[in-house]
Amino acid sequence: MKISEFSVKNYQFTIIIFVMVMALGISSLLTMPRGEDPPFNAPYFVVIAVYPGTSPNDMEELVADPIEEKLNELTDIKRIRTEIDDGLMIAQIDFTWGSDIDGKYNEVVREINNIRSSLPADLLSLEVKKLTSSDVNTKQVALISENASYKSLYDEADRLKTALEKVQGVKNVDIHGYPEQQVRISLNLEKMAQNKIPLFRVMAAIKNENVNIPGGSIDMGSKKFNVKTSGDYNSVEEIRNTIVLTSAEKIVYMKDIATVELSYEDESYLARFNGKRAVFVTVSEKDRTNILAINKEITPIMQEFKTTLPANIDFDEGFNQAEDVSKRLSGFARDFGIAIFLVLLTLLPLGWRASVIVMISIPLSLSIGLAMLNFFGYTINQLSIVGLVVALGLLVDDSIVVVENIERFLRNGYSRKDAAIQATKQIGLAVVGCTATLIFAFLPIVFLPEGSGDFIRSLPIAVISTVLASLFVSLTIIPFLSSLLLSRTHNPEGNMFMRGLKKIISGSYRQLLHRALAYPYVTLFIAFGIFVLSIALIPVVGFSLFPKSEKPMFMVNVETPLGTNLYATDSVALFVEHELRQHPQITSFFTNVGKGNPRIYYNIAPKNESSNYAQFFIRTKHLSMTELEEMIDSLRMKFHGYPNAKIEVKQFEQGPPVEAPIAMRIFGENLDTLRALAFKVEDIMKQTEGTIYITNPLLSQKTDLQIAINKDKAGLLGIPVAEIDRTVRLGITGLNIGTYRDEKGDEHQINVVLPKEGKHPSIDQFDKVYVSSVAGNLIPLRQLATIEMNTSVPTIKHYNKNRYITVTSYVKTGYNTGEVTNQIIDQMDALNLPAGYSYQAAGEVESSQESFAGLGTIIIITIFGILGILLLEFGTFKSTFIVLSVIPLGVIGAVFTLLLVGKTLSFVAVVGLIALIGIEVKNSILLVDFTNYLRERGVELNKAIEQAGETRFVPIILTTLTAIGGLTPLVLEDAPLYAPLAWVLIGGLISSTLLTRLVTPVLYKLLAPKVEVVDEVED
């Protein structure tokens, strides 16, 4: 090839180019962003509306329906999923993948702003959030104290927050687990009645005083002065001195009719660290940053902060993702070392000179690969590193083939320079074809759609860029180095390792091949039978999507019956804490009562406030997957059957977020019918072996207190219904009517409330609620309304504006999710649903369909691309078919290996199967190409087949062994995410290498393509 000849003859230029490449690679390695997982951004947005005290039915009518109507007008919407609970609506809008994220976000914000005026005026909050991987917190630390006030804890946490926010790569620093301070105005109804002051006048007085209207500016001579007006409140004392009523006789101040104080909001969230009262500080980082570099900046800040804390406040860095990333990268560095050592062992038959030349291709190819990854905007994460490890076993293939061919030419008497040029020219086209087919085989993985594709894309890109680099290296630097370093004198039989390898080949393979060629149809029948058996075993192997995470952490979720107050839920949390302390493998745990733990994993969103919910985030020592699962199973046994509470121990899972591994959506409009059907689905799941943590959101109904207003009586007294509603809210929760900014710049809500006994209002509070008439008279609430109890659904869900409910289940350890799901679907199909009602399998089923949807086009391109390459190389359909016959032979080893090691055919295993196609075809090309070459030189068919089989066996077995050597550390790591991929490749390579050496020659004999004899045979 011209490029090889140019590299050999212009070696000075070649040296400069590759020194530059090494420099670029080292620069990329030092500067590329690092993280545990790849950045994961999707055109998905969440609209959150908070309207405290509103029932799900009212939230649906007043908030959810109008918002959905407006959002549905947008283009490229894939789905809108809405969950409506007490006082809370969360709508997730998913746009089609590939939509402009920033553009769609702006569209959603615009539509929400447009509709805001038509929604209830007293909505507490309405916001739009992006779902980005950079929202995941990489640190969660705790400030711990049993006796410090919440204000002291908050002030110290705020001091840490201020220091951390100055670090360049930090995105957000948030404080969790403390009650907000507020200005509470507790009204004295008796004094209000004495002064004939209605409620609306108190509200208006505060609103009118708490404004800041700029006065503009005026010119005085050559100077310009801004005019400052009275402004908003500067102190609590100013609020006390707000004038509520003036007359000729007297002035009534706020302090005359109310108690005004700076206090805490009602407790709705309890936080503890290792069982001790705490406040949490979380840190998230910007996209495409180096987590290790940021951690290096943050660590001294935290160390200094710890030394300045008061004696009664402790500090603990409970979760630091940078430590996990550092450990993972160190593990991969070790894996690289092992892989390189194993690859070096497999190169021994080539001799030390040839081995050195081949080994040089590793740093060169990796350098180019890293530079290309950096150029295309990818980061160093666990998947891109796995891609580099996989490529490590493949990138030396081209160099081995080229070096082995050059040595063969040297043994035939060529000079080193001529041997380097001629041997590379002879094998060059086959090497290019091999690499091209390998790249085409990885294309379906590169173009996988949806979140799964985005999540895993850095792996195939790392392989493709590195293998492309290895092709360039094998055709340029390898011939050049061979022309300098390879020995002129060669033992025709090679070194002792080569002689031993050839002896094995001649002793066993030659006889086996001879017999296979003698009985070609029997050989093909046996191979086909083994292939059919492997296909039949696929259901036994089982299917799954993404595996569980091996990270040293898990979660425990606690759910008590609907309506349970915070402190009753906390009593269950205390029991869980006691059990967690019994396990020495657990290093720390964060307790969150009334709310979910802050987001610390890319596919789990925290749950909003709920008094009947608690969540634990638990960190463990670095355990093996088996040890981690054993501990989780023991905790599940301990918590199973806890009275009056559901305690779930959940392991983190890889891949895009799913609501649960098994989920069944039931669609229909009538909530009572949906509830009845949900019970039936729940029973189906309970009766299916392997299910655990079955959740039916409509299992129990919620009991509410209904204020039934006598509208006629209210009308006669001149009291608007809205005034009664407002007063009820005032008596129970209080009304937020403004904000107050203290001297530090912190904002606090101004809350107007009626006095109450205890931390939380009881039903007796209604006896203290009086409604103001327009004249200022106070009428007891019980004269205007009756208090009744009624039941309602706890939650309402919409899917593209249709009502639905989802019943979910997790899967016990040792059971296959796919098999359990199929059993449930079979029973669902037999369920007679009423007219207008239907079901849809969600969970992993839906995620799997989305992950592999839209692959048809790229698979067609891949198939015909590989066919086109092979036809260009060989010029005949027969040769192409012979080469492709290797594909089923790899499937055999892949399936049997998965069965043997107890792995399922998961998403990453399928990725391995796709990649295996290119690797297999690569080896098959070498065999068919050399057989054609020999026949063109006049060698008889059978002799050419046998000679090609023996001659090409050496480079093929060496490339296979190097690939296996490179993959072995991934197997030893036994990480659930990528170990199945490594097992598939290793098993497939073994079976295809062994069987192809027989099947491909036999097929060649039966389908021998026509060749033209161009020269006499060369030894």
* Class from helix and strand fractions: alpha+beta
The total count of strands amounts to: 30
| Average pLDDT number | 83
Q: Which descriptor suits the 3D outline?
A: elongated
Taking all Cα atoms into account, the compactness measure Rg is 36 Å
Number of helices: 34
User: Helical residue percent?
Assistant: 40-55%
Beta-strand content estimate: 15-25%
Largest sheet: 9 strands, antiparallel
Spans with pLDDT under 50 lasting ≥5 residues? Answer: none
Could you give the distance between the termini? 21 Å
Could you describe the 3D structure shown?
This protein is an alpha+beta fold. Helix content is 52%, strand content 19%. It has 34 helices and 30 strands. The strands form 7 sheets. Strands 1, 2, 3, 4, 20, 21, 28, 29 and 30 form a 9-stranded antiparallel β-sheet that branches. The two termini are 21 Å apart. The relative contact order is 0.12.
